[in-house]
Specification:
Helix content is 67%, strand content 0%. By secondary structure, it is mostly helical.
Length: 806
C-alpha cells in the first residue's frame, strides 16, 4: 500500500507541478494529476510491474475517447446526462470481460465525468488529452522504477499444486486397487532434502524410511503420510475457489486461455471426487490390476498437466492416458467370465481385506461345516460374492471416470498453453462440445460472453443498469441545482454505491462523518493560511502521500476525510478559494451518496440475494433436464436438444450471482441452504455428462428397449428429486423436504446397478453401471444442498465425497 501511494503521489505531483508552474498550463496540470489519481487510486491495477505498466498504456486510448466524449457533450446538461448513461452502462458492463476490466471501471468512468461539466471548452481538448497522457505515462514509469511489484502468485501455480496433490492421491488409490499397502507420500510443505536423522524424504523408495535399528516405524510413517494426502489435496482444491484468489488474478475473461484454466479447476474437483470414491471401493472390489494400472496412468497425466499448466513447462500429450483408457475399456468388455467370477482366485474370494470386515463371510473356520454358516452357507457365499462383484464394477467405473477427467484436464491444459486444439469429434446433434471455445476466434468468444449476459439474470447487466441510472441521474441533479464542483457529486455516487441497498447505506455514515471532518480541517486551514499557493504547493505531496497510504487502511471515514483535504489543496492552487470550498465538498458528497442510495433502492435493492433462490432453483431444473437428455442420448431414446448447454450457461450465471451474494451483507435467513453445494451440483452435472457422452456411443448404454426404458425411468426419478429440491428452495421448505424423492431415486439406482451386475460383463451393462454411478453421485451432491456443509471426506451413502468449487 505504501509503495503504491509513493508511486501515485510521485506521478501526480510531477505532472501537476510541471504543467502548473513550469509551463503555466492549469488545464493540462489538472488532467495530469487527475489521470494518475483516477487510475492509481480509484481504479485497481494489479499484477507485476511490467503488466501494470502495460495495462496503463493500453488504457490511454480509451481514456482519450472518453475525454473527447465528455468535452463534446458538456454543451448541455441533457446531452451530458444522456452520454453519462451510455458511458456508464458500457464501462460497467465491460466487467464481463474479466477482473482487469472490473478494476479499471471506476477509473474509466472518471475520464468522462470530469470533462462533461462546465465550462464547455472544446478548444482546451488538446490540453486535456496531453494532461491525461502525461499522467498515465508518468504513472507507468513509476510502476517500473519505484519499488516495482514482483509477480504475484498466479492461478496457474495454484492449479499445478492441486494437480500434484491429486497425483499423490491417485498413487494411493492405485495401491488400493492393486491390494497393496500405501507408501508414504511426500507432503506438500516438506522440502526434498534428507532429514537430519538419517531418513530419506517421505515417498522416496530408494532409501530407508526409518532410523537404523527401528524398522517398526516404517508402516506408521507410511500410514500417517497416506492419511494426510486426502486432506492436503482437498485443501489445495479449496484454494482454487475464486473467493480465495485475488480479484485481478482470477481467470474470468472470455478468451480461450481463461476459459481453459477455469475448465482445469472444475475438472480437478471432479477428478478429486472420483479418486476418493476409488479409495473407498478399492478395498472391497479389489484386487483389480487393470484398474490399478489405469489409476496409475491418471496419476501420470495429473503430473504432466501440473508441469504443463505452468508457463514454460512441457505441453502434455493426451496419447498416454487415451491409450490406457482404450486398453482398460477393451479389457473390461472382453468376452469372459461374469463380473463375479472375474475376480480371480485367492484373496478376492477368501477371507481378508478384499471382502471388508470378517462377518460378511465369517472368519476362517466359518467356511467349514458348523453353525457359523447358517442354514445355507452357499447362499451366503454367493451373496458376498455378488456384493464384491458389484463393488468391482463400481470400482472400474469410478477409475474410468477419474481417467476421463485426467484426459479432459490434459486437453484443457493444452488449450491454456495455446497448443493446436484437437478436432471436435462431438456429434453434430450434441454440440457445442466441452472444448468448443478452443475452436472459436477471440471476437466470437467476446460476443458470446456479451450476448450471454444481456439479460436481467446476469449480475453484470444489473450492476451496469444501476450504475448508468445513478450516474445519469446525478448529472441531471447537478445541472438542475447548478452545484459548484458537481464532479464531486458523481464521484461520491460512483465510489459509495454498492451492489445492494444495505451495503450502500452502511457506507453513508462513515463517508459523511469523514467528509465532514475533512471539510472542517479544510475550512480551518483555508481561514488560517488564506490565499498562499506556495504553502499548498509545499503541503500537497506529504498530505497526498499520507492520504493514499493511510486512508485505505484506516477505513472509509479516514479515506473520505483525507481525500477532501487533498482536493482542497489542489483547487486552491488552480483558483482562489475560501472556506466555502469545504462546504461545497460536504454538500456534494451528501448529494452523491443520497443518489446512490436511491438508485440502490430502485434497482435490485437486495443485490445478489434478490433472486438467488429462484436462480438456484432454475439451475437445478436445467440440470435435471440435462441429465435426462444425457441418459436419453446414451440409451438411444431421444436426441440432444441443447439442454446441456443451457445447464452450463445457467451454472455460469448462478455462480456469478452467488459470488456477488457472498460479497454483500445479507439476511441471515438466506444462509439456510448450502448455495455452494447447489452450484457444484450444476457443475458436476455438466462435467459428469461430458465424459459420458464422449465415451458411450449413442444407444449403447442399456440392453434392449426394456433396459433403455428402465434406465430412462431411473433418470426421471433423479430429475424429479432435482426439481423437488428446487421447489423446496423456492417455497423455503424446511430441511428434508426432498428426502423422500432422494430416497426413492437412490433405491431405484441401487436396483438398476444390481440388475446390471447380474448380467454378463458386456458393454451395455457396464455402461449402465457408469450411468447409474454418475446419477448416484449427483444425488449425493443434491443431498448437501439442504443438509448444510458436511465433512469434506463424508458423503451420504459411500459413493461421492464433498468437494468445493472454485
Amino acid at each position: 500500500m505504501l509503495h503504491r501511494a509513493v508511486r501515485v503521489t510521485a506521478a501526480a505531483c510531477a505532472g501537476f507541478y510541471t504543467f502548473r508552474y513550469g509551463l503555466h498550463q492549469p488545464v493540462t496540470a489538472t488532467y495530469a494529476l487527475f489521470g494518475a489519481v483516477a487510475v492509481g487510486v480509484l481504479a485497481r491495477v494489479e499484477g507485476d510491474a511490467r503488466s501494470r505498466a502495460r495495462t496503463l498504456l493500453l488504457t490511454l486510448p480509451f481514456a482519450w475517447v472518453l475525454v473527447c466524449l465528455g468535452t463534446v457533450l458538456a454543451v448541455h446538461t441533457g446531452a451530458a446526462a444522456l452520454g453519462m448513461a451510455g458511458v456508464g452502462f458500457a464501462v460497467a458492463f465491460g466487467s464481463v470481460g474479466g477482473p482487469r476490466l472490473v478494476g479499471l471501471a471506476n477509473g474509466l468512468q472518471l475520464f468522462y465525468i470530469l470533462p462533461c461539466f462546465p465550462p464547455y471548452a472544446p478548444d482546451t481538448l488538446p490540453q486535456r488529452l496531453t494532461g491525461v497522457a502525461a499522467g498515465l505515462l508518468l504513472l507507468a514509469a513509476a510502476e517500473r522504477l519505484l519499488w516495482p511489484e514482483p509477480p504475484p502468485p498466479d492461478y496457474r501455480g495454484h492449479l499445478a499444486r492441486a494437480a500434484e496433490a491429486l497425483a499423490r492421491l491417485a498413487d494411493l488409490a492405485a495401491a488400493d486397487c492393486a491390494g497393496r499397502p500405501p507408501t508414504a507420500a511426500p507432503r506438500t510443505a516438506a522440502p526434498p532434502t534428507a532429514p537430519s536423522d538419517g531418513r530419506a524424504p517421505p515417498g522416496r523408495a530408494d532409501a530407508p524410511r526409518t532410523a537404523p535399528g527401528n524398522p517398526a516405524e516404517a508402516p506408521d510413517d507410511a500410514a500417517n503420510g497416506a492419511a494426510d494426502v486426502p486432506e492436503q489435496a482437498l485443501a489445495l482444491l479449496d484454494q482454487l475457489r475464486f473467493s480465495r484468489i485475488p480479484t485481478m488474478e482470477r481467470p474470468a475473461g472470455p478468451g480461450a486461455v481463461d476459459r481453459a484454466l477455469t475448465h482445469c479447476a472444475t475438472t480437478l474437483h471432479y477428478i478429486g471426487a472420483e479418486l476418493l470414491r476409488v479409495r473407498r471401493l478399492g478395498p472391497v472390489g479389489g484386487p483389480y490390476p487393470q484398474a490399478a494400472v489405469l489409476v496409475t496412468a491418471t496419476a501420470d497425466a495429473l503430473r504432466a498437466a501440473a508441469a504443463g499448466v505452468r508457463a514454460g513447462g512441457p505441453v502434455p500429450s493426451t496419447a498416454p492416458i487415451e491409450a490406457r483408457i482404450a486398453a482398460f475399456e477393451a479389457a473390461r468388455t472382453s468376452p469372459g467370465p461374469a463380473p463375479g467370477s472375474a475376480l480371480g482366485p485367492g484373496p478376492a474370494l477368501g477371507p481378508g481385506p478384499a471382502l471388508g470386515p470378517g462377518p460378511a463371510l465369517g472368519p476362517g473356520p466359518a467356511l467349514g461345516p458348523g453353525p457359523a454358516l447358517g442354514p445355507d452357507p452357499g447362499r451366503d457365499a454367493v451373496a458376498g460374492h455378488a456384493r464384491t462383484a458389484a463393488a468391482r464394477l463400481g470400482l472400474g467405473t469410478v477409475a474410468l471416470n477419474a481417467a476421463e477427467g485426467a484426459r479432459f484436464l490434459t486437453l484443457a491444459t493444452r488449450t491454456a498453453r495455446h497448443a493446436p486444439p484437437p478436432a471436435d469429434d462431438t456429434p453434430p446433434d450434441q454440440r457445442p462440445g466441452p472444448f468448443w471455445y478452443a475452436h472459436e476466434p477471440v471476437a466470437m468468444l467476446w460476443w458470446r460472453r456479451i450476448r450471454g449476459n444481456l439479460t436481467t439474470r446476469s449480475v453484470y447487466f444489473r450492476n451496469a443498469l444501476r450504475t448508468a441510472g445513478a450516474l445519469s441521474a446525478a448529472r441531471l441533479v447537478v445541472g438542475a441545482l447548478d452545484l459548484t464542483h458537481g464532479f464531486w457529486v458523481l464521484l461520491a455516487t460512483l465510489t459509495l454505491m454498492r451492489t445492494s441497498a444495505a451495503d450502500t447505506r452502511m457506507t453513508l455514515r462513515p463517508a459523511l462523518v469523514g467528509t465532514a471532518c475533512g471539510a472542517a480541517v479544510t475550512a480551518a486551514v483555508l481561514l488560517a493560511v488564506g490565499e498562499h499557493p506556495a504553502f499548498y504547493a509545499a503541503a500537497l505531496p506529504p498530505v497526498m502521500l499520507f492520504a493514499f497510504a493511510v486512508g485505505p487502511v484506516l477505513g472509509l471515514a479516514w479515506a473520505q476525510g483525507l481525500f477532501t483535504v487533498v482536493v482542497a489543496m489542489v483547487f486552491t492552487q488552480l483558483a482562489p478559494a475560501s472556506w466555502r470550498l469545504a462546504e461545497a465538498r460536504l454538500l456534494n458528497v451528501a448529494t452523491g451518496a443520497a443518489i446512490g442510495i436511491l438508485a440502490g433502492l430502485c434497482a435490485w435493492p437486495r443485490g445478489g440475494g434478490q433472486d438467488l433462490r429462484r436462480r438456484t432453483a432454475e439451475l437445478l431444473d436445467r440440470s435435471a433436464a440435462a441429465l435426462c437428455e444425457t441418459v436419453a442420448v446414451v440409451t438411444g431414446t431421444g436426441p440432444a436438444q441443447g439442454a446441456l448447454g443451457r445447464a452450463r450457461h445457467s451454472a455460469l450465471l448462478t455462480e456469478a450471482l452467488y459470488a456477488q451474494y457472498r460479497s454483500e451483507r445479507h439476511d441471515p435467513a438466506e444462509d439456510g441452504p448450502n448455495w455452494q453445494a447447489a452450484v457444484l451440483t450444476g457443475q458436476h452435472t455438466v462435467r459428469g455428462a461430458e465424459p459420458l457422452l464422449a465415451r458411450i456411443p449413442p444407444g449403447t448404454a442399456a440392453t434392449g428397449p426394456d433396459g433403455a426404458a428402465r434406465l430412462v425411468g431411473r433418470a426421471e426419478q433423479v430429475a424429479a428429486a432435482f426439481r423437488r429440491q428446487g421447489t423446496a428452495l423456492l417455497e423455503r421448505g424446511p430441511a428434508g423436504t426432498a428426502d423422500r424423492a432422494l430416497a426413492d431415486a437412490r433405491a431405484a439406482l441401487r436396483d438398476e446397478r444390481a440388475t446390471a451386475t447380474r448380467m454378463p460383463a458386456d458393454p451395455a451393462s457396464l455402461h449402465t453401471v457408469d450411468v447409474t454411478l454418475w446419477l448416484t453421485g449427483l444425488l449425493d451432491d443434491l443431498t448437501r444442498v439442504q443438509g448444510g456443509a458436511r465433512s469434506a471426506l463424508g458423503d451420504t451413502d459411500g459413493h461421492r465425497p464433498q468437494t468445493r468449487g472454485p
